[in-house]
Amino acid sequence: xxxxxxxxxxxxxxxxxxxxxxxxxxxxxxxxxxxxxxxxxxxxxxxxxxxxxxxxxxxxxxxxxxxxxxxxxxxxxxxxxxxxxxxxxxxxxxxxxxxxxxxxxxxxxxxxxxxxxxxxxxxxxxxxxxxxxxxxxxxxxxxxxxxxxxxxxxxxxxxxxx
Length: 162
Known about the structure:
CATH architecture: 2-Layer Sandwich
Largest sheet: 5 strands, antiparallel
Shape: globular
Strand content: 15-25%
Number of domains: 1
């Protein structure tokens, strides 16, 4: 399979741009230390907010997996698991509609284009390296910003993946 599969646009033109955060009435902003316990707390906070505002339904597992991957990457790769470094999380929800999550670390950033495709024959047996692909496949839209230090993940409730 060609590399372009990984980078194909996942965002349909018919939906509003997720970067427009003014349309979201439910919001969460928080900092978390770079620990596994904080990762779990951040996931719980986002899922609780999403559940309360009704902006996820059958997609809760997809959101949880993608969010865990984004947070684990920020903690492990971005912040090098240094507990003094924090992960900044913002979450925006719209009841019965969609959810937008931004995860930012304090690291040097990275170029997602340079991450090898885990579906390549030489990478299939590795126990790591699938997080970016998982996020792209489970969410409707994934964007990297701030030189790779921030990832934006977006999910529309009930939208079927292609």
